[in-house]
Structure formats: C-alpha cells, structure tokens
Amino acid sequence: MNHAATFGGRLSAWRRRRGLSQLELAGIAESSQRHVSFLESGRTAPSREMVLRLAGAMDLPLRQQNALLLAAGFAPIWRESDLAAPELAEVKAALAFMLGQQEPFPAVVVDRRWNILDANQGAARLVGFLSDPEIQGPANLAESLVSPQGMRRHLVNWPEVALYFLRGVQADALADGTPETAALLDRLLSFPDVPSLTRRSSAEDGHGPVVAMHFQRGDVSLRLFTTIATLGTPQDVTLQEIRIEAFFPADEATAAWFRSAG
C-alpha cells in the first residue's frame, strides 16, 4: 500500500500541514515523540483512543477524523447526515430562524464548498437585481463571485473582494485537506483576470475596517459587508461544514433599497 494512504502517512502529512514537530504533537496529545515516530513509520499500530487524541491535538475536521480512523482500521464515529434528515429538524429550524431574522437583508446557508443550501428573500432580491435573464450564472456562491457569468459583472471593486474571498478558500483548502476544496480553489483560480493570491490587499495599504462589496447596476448602488457564522458544537460532519453568511448594508442608501421591498 502507498504509505501516504496509510494511517502513518496520513498522520505525518497532517502533522506537517499543521506545522508541528513530532515532539510538539506528542506534547499536545500527551504521548511521547518515540511513540509518534513509531506510529508514522508504521512500526506501531494506534489504538482507537490514540487516533482520536492525535486528531483532536491537530484540530482535524470531523470528516478528516473519520478518514484517519478508517486508515487505522476503525469505523468512523462521526455521522454525515442529510440536512433534511428528521434528526436535524431542530437545527434546520434554527437556520430558518436566522435567515428570517436577517430580513430584509440577504442571508444564505452554504456548505463547506459554498454550494447554496438555503436563502432568504433578501438574498433572492439581491440575486434578482444582479442577474441577467440571458445569462445563467452558477449556483455555487464562490463561482458566482469569481466567474465572469456571475456577480462580478456588477461588482465595482471585484478584484479587491475576490482577493479576500480566494484567500479564504485557500485557507479552507489548507485546513480541511480534502481534494474537493483544493479542486474548488483551482477552479476559481482558473477564471480569467483572477487576482494573484500574492497581491496586496486594501487592508495592507491601511484602508477601511472592512471590505464592502460595491454593486452597481444602472442608477442603483449597493454596498454590503458580510459576517459568517458556524454552528458552535457540531457532532455531525454536515453540521460542522455549514456556514451562514449574512449581508449587512454599509450605508443608509443600501439599507433603504432593501427595506423598500422588505
């Protein structure tokens, strides 16, 4: 078997990804450097408890904790439920409440790779304002922001906003280690005129406290900044990967435009 696919190979890769030495990981996991070294080389097989201790020490996402357990020969412990499953009814109701409370301003629920799972009426109004009937834009929020067929057509400060967003997706790819997130980043970077991730941002130039998205279409000018929330104590892969992005007006004119149809 390819060592990279073994428990030892995965452990070593994640340790390096987290920037930890064997000694540092051993200290956090209350083990010894010798034991970590033996686990990475395959000379010692881990117990289920040790797999979870190491995963916790490296702050691995639940999905990757399951993968590490499988590589060690154990069954996954974290379930991955459909958001429509009955056991998630209370969480889904809470998400709906959050979307409703954000009205008339936009809010969306997205998964780890920015696929839209739910949205409120404010978000629908923003999408309607930015959409051209003759152009079918992508349903993925990340692609909609970066693609020439998406929101960037009406985003005045698109390079600045795109840079922040791409750096966020890059951080996601480093954090979760999944090929799907890495593929999303590659796909976004392949779009034309995408700013380099090494480019200076406005914050580095000492400008405002937040980067507001400035949309302009006809005589309507909208400025919005966003917040992103996650569930605090997820015990399910699906719930850990959910994000709630809320859009807030950055000026009174934007607030008035949304309230006019709210």
Please give the order of strands in the largest beta sheet: 2-1-5-4-3
Label the CATH architecture of the largest domain.
2-Layer Sandwich
Structurally, the number of domains stands at 2
Low-confidence stretches: none
Number of helices: 12
CATH topology of the largest domain: Beta-Lactamase
Give the SSE order as H and E letters. Answer: HHHHHHEEHHHHEEHEH
Query: Which class best fits the helix and strand makeup?
Result: alpha+beta
As an assembly, this protein is single chain
Largest sheet descriptor? 5 strands, antiparallel
Q: Can you put this structure into words, describing what you see?
A:
This protein is of the alpha+beta class and 262 residues long. 29% of the residues are buried. It folds into two domains: 3-71, 434 Repressor (Amino-terminal Domain); 86-259, Beta-Lactamase. Helix 2 crosses helix 3 (33-41) and helix 4 runs antiparallel to helix 5. Strands 2-1-5-4-3 form a five-stranded antiparallel β-sheet, sandwiched between helices. The protein has helices spanning 7-17, 22-28, 33-41, 48-57, 62-71, 89-102, 121-130, 141-146, 158-176, 179-189, 237-240, 252-259, and strands at residues 107-110, 116-119, 213-217, 220-229, 243-249. Strand 1 and strand 2 (116-119) form a beta hairpin.
Topology:
Elements lengths: L6 H11 L4 H7 L4 H9 L6 H10 L4 H10 L17 H14 L4 E4 L5 E4 L1 H10 L10 H6 L11 H19 L2 H11 L23 E5 L2 E10 L7 H4 L2 E7 L2 H8 L3
Main attributes of the structure:
262 residues; alpha+beta; 434 Repressor (Amino-terminal Domain); Beta-Lactamase; 2 domains; five-stranded antiparallel beta sheet; 12 helices; 5 strands; 45% helix; elongated
